[in-house]
## 1
Amino acid sequence: MTDERGALLAERFEAQRPRLRAVAYRMLGSLGEAEDAVQEAWLRLDRHAEEVENLGGWLTTVVSRVCLNELRGRARRREEELDTQVPDPVLAPDAVLRSDGGALVELSRVLRGGAAIAASAAGFRSVAPFARLVLVNGAYGVLTVREGRPVSVMAFTVVGGRVARIDVLNDPERLAALALPG
């Protein structure tokens, strides 16, 4: 495959990634495993690109089959839930969330206190399948992409093992000016 064709294929695959991740997440219930399933689809596409006529359909089929194989593997291994619960990320009691929506005033806000931030986070579960871990200024962050377009970037400041600050950029104009993967 030529470099130009490979780049075009990668671009078309990336346009499908959010939908594929959402399908895998619905089947597996884990963002990490969903991302692994999507990556496996990319590897298979790289080997079979010449045979594929309907990219979206082919990728959906492959991701679904990878997920089914993972679910079968769980059953064979007889994975059982642990009695212990994995804790959610720990927010410092005095944590601060700052959101910059730019001209979209309804998206600009400041929340203070871990409890207030945690309570507002429940409303963002619907975008979880579209989020991916990234580095923001050298630290862990989250980039949310919908329909190939970045819609928010979150940066976390951790102090003493707790999230002390969350900075959210969801200003469409500023996001468009950044070199973010789509």
## 2
Amino acid sequence: MDLNVSIHDVFEKAYKRYPDKEFIYDGYKRLTYKDIKQMSDSIASAFHQLGIGKGDRIIACLPNWHEFLAIYFAIAKIGAILVPCNTRYRVEELSYIVANSGAKAIFVVEEHGHFHTVKSLMESNESALEMVFTVRFQEDGHHSFEDLLKNRTVEAAAGSVHRSERRCVFHFIYFRNNRTSERCHAHAFKFCP
């Protein structure tokens, strides 16, 4: 078993073996490995063009939708760091994560009202956020998930992290414990095979 394998490598291997096999059904769409691969490549290319790269933190405040997987694999491809965020977080919790994670970009949905919280944090310069990406809705002046998919160039490979550089996987997990505290707690996980 090769322990020097990234999540991107695992996905690429599965894609090559089962390109037309169903990979996910999120209650909205059924998508194959090939569909998710094309999406993640387009997103990785768009990230590269927007100046998002290795080591940058990206918050994904999304439900269990296929968009999350495409974003996750694009992040892995370019060597960025995923900061997953629960869509049920309240304004205070989301504000804490945005302000303290050092994230350069965030993906949000309309349903939970997080867009307006993030927008006000950006306007007040209380975070490092430079970009807000909307998922399944459009907002003037911001990129949407669909905008990222329009980028069908092969340039994604240019922004991809070479296998020899993929030594560690980073994730930041934020959580709260209602019984002991109203504050969020942060844990950074680093896995180095």
